[in-house]
Amino acid sequence: MTSIRIPAAADFHVHLRDGTMMETVVPTIRQGGASLAYVMPNLVPPISSVQQALDYHSRLQALDPSVTFLMTLYLSPEITPEVIAEAAATGKIAGVKSYPKGVTTNSDAGVVDYASFYPVFAAMEEHDLVLNLHGECPSNSTTSLLNDAETFQPATSSTTTILNAEESFLPTLLDLHSRFPKLRIVLEHCTTAAAIAAVKQCGPTVAATITAHHLYLTIDNVAGNPHCFCKPVAKLPSDRAALMAAATSGDPKFFLGTDSAPHPKNKKIGTANAAAGVFTQPYAVSYIATAFDRVGKMDAVRAFVAEFGRAFYKTVEKGWESAEDVTKDAIELKKEPGVKVVDEFGQGEGVVVPFMAGETVWSVTWL
Ligand SMILES: [Zn+2]
Fold it and tell me: From ligand 1's centre to the CA of 40, what distance in Å?
């Protein structure tokens, strides 16, 4: 197969930032082949009120009215059962994102203890909002290598590192699912075979997003290239194979969430601590098609990028999209001619480097 026509993609995990970076990134959503973006709330300060989410929605919509933006709230003490009811009533907020404290970009306000949020999860179950989990336990993220100058011991005795942070989190996923079986939960950006197995083990209310870049990367790529560094980090070849198998399997629990996360180039290179995030938005569907083609699974692209996520989030049932619009808004993917990934997007301080810059991938054309 060298070309295919499918409905526009829906990307169920994007970081669109704010200000200049937002202006650079939002126009690349359709370029990447998506007509719907599920927007993460980790701005500074985080989106933790309904009004903030609605204001952010207006800023995004002003930049591209042809994209459907679904909003999230940042799970924090400001989020109460009353806020959940208010959020659901807006018809623009589809879920709540949980970041364990300190695991990734702008997560300082994140969750320490899930039990205190059980009343919030019960309200989300009642109002049919989705819980989006960044599924990693915090690891030793201190920046000093000599944490305790007296003993040369790390300041924390935690055995969690970026390599086992996701697997360490999986018991929390299973526990939340058993406490709130009707709550729809998405384990975001899975990176391990263990995470895939845990999601399969759960009932139909638990699903997972898989990014484009985790279908390519292993830990070796991350170690040499800050543009491949994100949280959770890519893991072993066996994990990558499990992600690819799940993404191409036709199991509706697994769908696209790119976790496209732009950072200015100067926060990626020439700095002691590179910011975590891979920028994939402008070529989102191209990367997926190219990866699926390499394993002879082009027939699985349509469901993975355009159907399973929409079904899980009930985008038509909830009136966010019409069934006609979804099928009418179509894209064509072509192997030849492909498209060469440009070196940079944006200008000045806002320059951002896309994933696989300089490589040629499948092209996306709007019909
Ligand atoms: Zn993310």
Answer: 7
